[in-house]
Amino acid sequence: MHTIADVQSSKDLRNIPINQVGIKDLRFPIAVRSRSGIQHTIAAVTMTVFLNAEQKGTHMSRFVALMEEQTQELDAESLHALVQEMLTRLDSPAGKISLSFPFFRKKTAPVSGIQSLLDYDVKLSGEVRNGSYLHTLQVLVPVTSLCPCSKEISQYGAHNQRSHVTLTLQCRADVEIEEVLDLVESQASCQLYGLLKRPDEKFVTEQAYENPKFVEDMVRDIAALLRQDERIAAFTVESENFESIHNHSAYAMISHG
What we know:
The chain is an alpha+beta fold. 26% of the residues lie in helices and 42% in strands. The chain has 6 helices and 9 strands.
């Protein structure tokens, strides 16, 4: 019986290491552990490792095999374990796993009490670099913002817009997705809902009017709260306001740590 050649394990003579090599955007079903329980969703998974200069290639099939064997619900602790297992199997000192997925939350309309789902874009990343582990949580939260200047100068009404607030958190300890959603939505002019009746629409319209926020206000107010959380080692907060009276967006970003 002939032995099948293992080409990727052969020596490479160019003497150039590769910082990250692996698979990108593998679509895979996952279970995410959150405050509200276990949520099943579909993730786009990217898995990479550091490749030594003398090694020709990595073992691509081992990344997929690892995901096929993954049975634990994902949270900060289980993602850390998954990254360590990847490094062991690929015999590498450094590597990263990122999972991007839609996260759904059941929301209750403020007046009618009718319930509906709202989706949020979430990205979980775990990385070993220079012997240290780094856990990152990124959440994109859609909200409403109403312009303070428009309210001040207009005889009646004020222009508002839907805004995308993106938080990227480097965490020392587990931070739940719902905590991030609550924080951002509390600092917007008003939060969004999947389904509203007429009394609800009246309520959210008036709430936004009574709580005007510039794009600058939103990132500053959120940053002030994040600075008080000892679980967060560093963060970036961004807000993109899709203007209703311009064909461009208003944008602001604060980076800390």
